[in-house]
Amino acid sequence: MNRLRSWRYRVVDVFTREPLQGNPLAVFLDASGIDGATMQKIAREMNLSETVFVLPATRADCLVSVRIFTPARELPFAGHPTIGTSFVLRDEGIVPKMTEQFLLEEKVGPVPIRIETGEQPLIWLRTPPITWGRIYDRALCAKALGLDVSDLLEITPQLLSAGNPTLLIALKDKPSVDRAWLDSHGLSVIRNDDDEALCVFVFTPMAEGAYSRMFAPEYGVQEDPATGSSTGPLAAFMIKHGLASSAAGGRFLSEQGTKMGRRSVLYVQINGAQGADAIDVGGYVTPVAEGTMHL
Length: 295
Fold this sequence. Notes:
By secondary structure, the chain is α+β, with helices and mostly antiparallel strands. The chain is built from six helices and 18 strands.
């Protein structure tokens, strides 16, 4: 008879100060002994946008290594798992409270973390290098989203990636964002056979930043309450098209998840003279649960 092993995990809500808002995340604190196939099964069992497994770092400059899984696949990088894991490591004392900067090892490479201390820590990640991909037809994008082409801004949708390919589509107003919907059939309208699995991110510019939604049926996530890995590309896209300032030190926010009842607030900061090449994404984290899995 096989002996059961136990693994402790924490559940936190990311990009929110309120419990049961934001994007929930499960973090397995010591995943040594769990193979990749089992990690994928656990992520499917948890059925959250992402589940994180913390492992010893293989690089001397990184604090720990993290593997990130959606219910359907492993990701090279993701924002809310990076922010949420950083909070848990700090809350567990693995990161000393006085530490303000450290690196997490992810498949995309080392991800810099910065802690802005206060009554509640605001945790920032540096977005990995952003690549710009192909452009998409506005009319086809509108059709895929169940919208009229007049609901889109006169900006050509484009694929950007900071680890996870994201199609950015700018819409005219919040009602258009709230009406948008994308399933696997809709995605088939716009994707090429040779496309990687992609996220579809819709947004409209607001005075404070952007109002956003993200769909990723190919990742096993119909709609994501908060997508940190797409928010850096969102900022770069908005800067390119004059929808946000590239001034150093500039901050704005993306409100996401509101339509699905999981309001999330993602902060964006533009750093130095590099502008869109140096984008930090930050947020607050709220702990909600912990447990033990026996396998």
